[in-house]
Design brief:
- The structure is a single chain.
- By secondary structure, the protein is mainly alpha-helical.
- Helix content is 74%, strand content 0%.
- It is built from 14 helices and no strands.
Length: 320
C-alpha cells in the first residue's frame, strides 16, 4: 500500500540516487536489526526495510528499460530477475545455514554487509539517470494523484488483479510444499532440500529462457506460464509418487519465477502508451488525468500518437 505514494513522492529524485538510497536504507535497517534489543525494535526495522523494498522494486524495471538497448527491455528485465532467482538458489540456503550455525543476528549482519557491497557497486557502475523532464515539472501533489489514478486504466487494473490472485494462490500453496513433498514423494531432510534447490535452479533457467522472446510475444509467454503453473500445482493434490511430485514442483518453480518477467514487460508496454493522448470518446476522457504518471512511471518518453479507443483494443492487457 505504501509503494505507490512513495514512488510518486520520489519521482523528482534522480533514478541512480534513489535506488542507492533504497539500498542504504536496507543496509541500515538490517544493521539495526542485528543489534535489536527487543522484538518491537526488530519489527520496526523490518517495517522500514519493507518500505524501501517496495520503492526499490517499483523503480528497478523502469531503470532497466532505460539502460537496455532498444527493443530488448524484456530480455534485460529477465536478466535482472535472475538475481532474484539466484537468491532463492543460493542466498536462502546460505542464510539459513549461517543462522543455524552462528545465530540469526550473524545471518542478518552478513546480509547487511552484502547490501553495503551492493551500494558501493551501484555507485561505481550505475550511470547518471536524471528524472524525466515531465517528472521534474510536475508538482508532487499532481504526481501523487496521477499515480493513484493509474489503477483506473483497465489494462493496468487487470494486470493488478491477475498479480493479486497469482501471488495469493502461489503462497497459499507454497506454504504446504514441504508436507506435500513428504506425503506424495516421501522426500525429507536432504531430499527435501535438494527439491527446493531444484525449484530455484529451474527458476533461473525459466527466467533466462522467457527473457529471450518476451519482447516479441509477451502474451503467449504469459499464458503458457500461467497454464503450466496451474496444472503443476493441481498435480500435487493427489498422491502420484516421487517422480511426478518432483516434476510438478520443478515446473511450478520455473513458471512462477518467470511470470514476473512477463508482468514487468507488460507494464513497460502499457505505461508509455497510457501517457498523453487526445481522448476520442467520453470513456477515454475519464482516464486522461492519470496519463502523465503512467508515462513517467515507465521510465520512457511519452508517445506522440494517440491510443485507440476501447472498442479497437486487443483483448489481452499485455498485448503490444
Amino acid at each position: 500500500m505504501s509503494t505507490i505514494p512513495l514512488t510518486a513522492l520520489t519521482m523528482r529524485v534522480p533514478r541512480h540516487t534513489l535506488i542507492a538510497i533504497t539500498m542504504v536504507i536496507f543496509v541500515v535497517s538490517q544493521a539495526a536489526a542485528t543489534f535489536a534489543p527487543t522484538f518491537l525494535t526488530l519489527g520496526l526495522t523490518r517495517l522500514i526495510c519493507a518500505l524501501a523494498h517496495g520503492v526499490f522494486w517499483s523503480i528497478l524495471g523502469p531503470i532497466t528499460a532505460r539502460l537496455a538497448p532498444p527493443g530488448q527491455a524484456g530480455r534485460a528485465t529477465a536478466m535482472v530477475f535472475i538475481g532474484n532467482s539466484l537468491a532463492i538458489v543460493g542466498g536462502v540456503p546460505l542464510g539459513t545455514a549461517i543462522g543455524q550455525w552462528l545465530g540469526w543476528r550473524v545471518a542478518i549482519g552478513v546480509t547487511a554487509a552484502a547490501g553495503a557491497i551492493c551500494v558501493l557497486l551501484l555507485a561505481r557502475v550505475l550511470p547518471k539517470l536524471d528524472p524525466l523532464p515531465h517528472d521534474r515539472e510536475t508538482r508532487v501533489g499532481a504526481q501523487l494523484r496521477a499515480s493513484i489514478a493509474i489503477i483506473r486504466e483497465p489494462r493496468v487494473a487487470m494486470l493488478c488483479a491477475i498479480t493479486l490472485l497469482l501471488v495469493i494462490g502461489h503462497f497459499a500453496a507454497y506454504t504446504y510444499i514441504a508436507p506435500l513433498a513428504r506425503r506424495d514423494g516421501d522426500l525429507q531432510g536432504a531430499g527435501l532440500s535438494a527439491l527446493l534447490l531444484g525449484y530455484g535452479a529451474t527458476a533461473l533457467v525459466a527466467s533466462y529462457a522467457v527473457g529471450r522472446f518476451v519482447d516479441r510475444r509477451p502474451g503467449p509467454a504469459l499464458t503458457v506460464l500461467l497454464a503450466v503453473m496451474a496444472v503443476s500445482v493441481a498435480a500435487l493434490a493427489p498422491v502420484l509418487g516421487t517422480v511426478p511430485t518432483v516434476v510438478a514442483t520443478l515446473l511450478w518453480g520455473g513458471a512462477f519465477c518467470a511470470i514476473p518477467v512477463c508482468f514487468a514487460s507488460a507494464v513497460l508496454r502499457i505505461a508509455p502508451r497510457a501517457g498523453t493522448r487526445r481522448p476520442r470518446c467520453r470513456w477515454c476522457r475519464s482516464r486522461s488525468a492519470s496519463a502523465a504518471a503512467r508515462s513517467s512511471a515507465s521510465g520512457s518518453p511519452r508517445p506522440a500518437t494517440s491510443a485507440p479507443c476501447r472498442s479497437s483494443r486487443r483483448r489481452w492487457p499485455w498485448s503490444p
